[in-house]
Amino acid sequence: MFMTSIIYEFVCQSLYDSEFNQNNSLAYDAAMSDLRTRIKAELDKRGWTPTDLANKSGVPQPTIQRFLSKTHGEPRINTIKKIASGFGLTEAQLRGFQDATEGKAESKQPRSESNVEAGPDIRGSCPLISWVQAGAWCDAVDLYAPGDAELWLPCPVTHGPHTYCLRIKGDSMTNTIPGQRSYPEGMIIFVDPDRPITNGCRVVAKLPDCEEATFKEYREDSGRRYLMPLNRQYDKFEIAEDTRLCGVVIFAGWQE
Description:
By secondary structure, this protein is an alpha+beta fold. It folds into two domains: about 20-95, 434 Repressor (Amino-terminal Domain), CATH 1.10.260.40; about 125-255, Umud Fragment, subunit A. The protein contains seven helices and nine strands; from the N terminus they run H-H-H-H-H-H-E-H-E-E-E-E-E-E-E-E. Helix 3 (about 50-55) packs across helix 4 (about 60-70).
């Protein structure tokens, strides 16, 4: 599932120019205002009321009404996905990251040749959170509140509803073998807690008596389980009974 950093940089730059930093309240307010505006525009386009949208999406009408009237913060990501689905849109289309006409019948007008390859399909946005938040996420996947995210990033691969992003710290996953998969400091990883853990996958784990989560490769050998760094300068360690495995890395790339 790994894609080149060049493609990912292009995706983030072209489809997520409107990303906001939660430390910047003006940018956050602008992003929330834009989402409200888009939902209201979709309602007006269809001649719907919030009750109509509730019936179509399964989201309670009071939840929709509170967000539209600015008496409630941004809905949870699952709620946004349901609202988008009620409109017949993807979350990316509702947020304006993707053309709402994408996926419809293509025009029969002749196209000129191009040597530009289409970018990856954006499958929704995921929150970039801290390693401390990731550690808490292991204990309660619904703990996340939208305002806690550093920012939202589009994920180019199919993912579960609880997927989140982390920015790698340190060099324990920087591979010392040339040409092998490597995760250097600063790279963004997308973590899906709903993916099954298999031998050889990369996981985020919560170690006993440690507030932050950690990122390692999961290995099984002779009935024993290990967390292994890719950097040979670090030692592998056996997974303790009270270690929590918080999710599988499904995508990695760079973000400008």
